[in-house]
Amino acid sequence: MSGEYSHRALLNEFRCAEASPRRQVGLAGAHISDDRKPWATKVQRIVRGIRTPMRDGAIVRLRLSEDGTRIDAVLVMKAAYVEGAIRFDLAIAARHLDSKGQGVGDDILECFETTCQKILADNLLRSGLAVSHVHRQNKPMQRLLSSRGWTQLAPEADDDPDYEYWGAVIPAS
């Protein structure tokens, strides 16, 4: 996985949310969205707005399809020192709709952990804390994190009650 400026067009086409079916209501023709995965729509909008290289110190990793015509996976993370320890923020871990069932989620987390371990090794550190903000309805992400040793840190995020904090200790390799 890598992240380059040349992938801007592919980022703009990234799809991790199903198109919302809409239905007309009344004579005014108002539309109501039936989006059952609000986090996916939000992540898709953010991914489409990514411009690499990131200016805020974020690390972006992209995985292209075998033929190079689409982005299969997006990872956005940050590393920062907080109160004398290193903290890794898993900001975005998203897979393209067309890559469902291909183990892409595991690959994204593997890339995240490998990147964390490289940062730990470069700074001669033994471990770091990884955290992520996960929508409470995003059960696939919760299962994936849980399967890799992550635990729920707080049942409700301070800034948004629809999200939960998850975390794990990442050991140096």
Give the secondary structure arrangement, pairings included.
Elements: H1 8-12, E1 22-25, E2 30-33, H2 38-48, E3 59-64, E4 71-82, E5 85-95, H3 104-122, E6 127-135, H4 139-147, E7 151-154, E8 163-171
Parallel strand pairs: 5-6
Antiparallel strand pairs: 1-2, 3-4, 4-5, 6-8, 7-8
Tag the structure with descriptive keywords.
173 residues, two-stranded antiparallel ribbon, 8 strands
CATH topology: Aminopeptidase
- Strand arrangement in the largest pleated sheet: 3-4-5-6-8-7
Biggest sheet features: 6 strands, mixed
Which regions are unreliable across 5 or more consecutive residues at pLDDT < 50? 23-34
Helix residue percentage:
25-40%
Q: What's the rounded overall pLDDT mean?
A: 84
Determine the structural class based on helices, strands and strand pairing: alpha+beta
Q: How would you spell out the order of helices and strands?
A: HEEHEEEHEHEE
The number of domains is 1
For the record, what is the CATH homologous superfamily label? Gcn5-related N-acetyltransferase (GNAT)
Beta percentage is 25-35%
Would you count the extended β strands for me? 8
